[in-house]
Amino acid sequence: MLSAYPELVEFLPCQSPEAWVNWAIKNPSLLLNDHAHCEKKAASTAMNLMYRYVDRDNLLHKMSRLAREELLHFEQVHKLMRSRGIAYEHLSASRYADGMRKHIRTHEPARLVDTLIVGAFVEARSCERFAALAPHLDDELSKFYVSLLKSEARHFEDYLTLAQEYAGEPIDERIAFFREVEHKLIVEPDVAFRVHSGPPSQG
């Protein structure tokens, strides 16, 4: 399913653990709830970048489009939840985002570049997870997750392209650094299921 996006597959350090996929299948309500939160957070991230970097023309263009798409995805997930009688509730954040963002440098343009690289990993991982889940879900959800792959892959490309544009130097080493961080976050066990959590802890 991800064969159309070889750069995305190569970018990620690993596939989602099978134990995580099985965990997701057993928690469809929690999956949709956290997915809705993820889409809303993704739109917020894009908007925050637009407010912070008003002089970056290409960023403004790409992030404006991305924010609109993420909010549309939120609306679609929320509609699915309502049709299934699933309440939209507050959830604690997974350790994934914080685990990535705590390594973002604080001086510019390094801060911007790292933020964009982290964004690329978030979008790439979302795309990979939707592809991993789609074959195991009911027909409605499966079609929905397959429909998201193209836009999630494009969001990954947008973030990575912007990171390369604004770095002014090669970013291979920073990508490799965050790839190692992401790998640990994906394979190490988690107590609570989330869209970006690791596999379930055995207690």
Q: Structural class given helices, strands, pairing?
A: mainly alpha
Output mean pLDDT: 96
Strand content: under 5%
As a whole number of angstroms, the C-alpha radius of gyration is: 16 Å
Strand count, sense and barrel status of the largest sheet are:
none
User: CATH class, anyone?
Assistant: Mainly Alpha
Topology:
Layout (H helix, E strand, L loop, with lengths): L5 H6 L6 H9 L1 H25 L4 H27 L11 H7 L8 H24 L5 H29 L4 H16 L16
Description of the molecule:
The protein is an all-alpha fold and 203 residues long. The protein has a single domain (17-87, 106-187), classed as Ferritin, core subunit, four-helix bundle (Ferritin), CATH 1.20.1260.10. It has helices spanning 6-11, 18-26, 28-52, 57-83, 95-101, 110-133, 139-167, 172-187. α3 packs antiparallel against α4 (57-83), α4 (57-83) packs antiparallel against α7 and α6 (110-133) crosses α8. The longest helix has 29 residues, at 139-167. It is globular, with a radius of gyration of 16 Å.
Brief summary:
This protein is mainly alpha-helical and 203 residues long. It has one domain (17-87, 106-187): Ferritin, core subunit, four-helix bundle (Ferritin, Up-down Bundle), CATH 1.20.1260.10. It has helices at 6-11, 18-26, 28-52, 57-83, 95-101, 110-133, 139-167, 172-187.
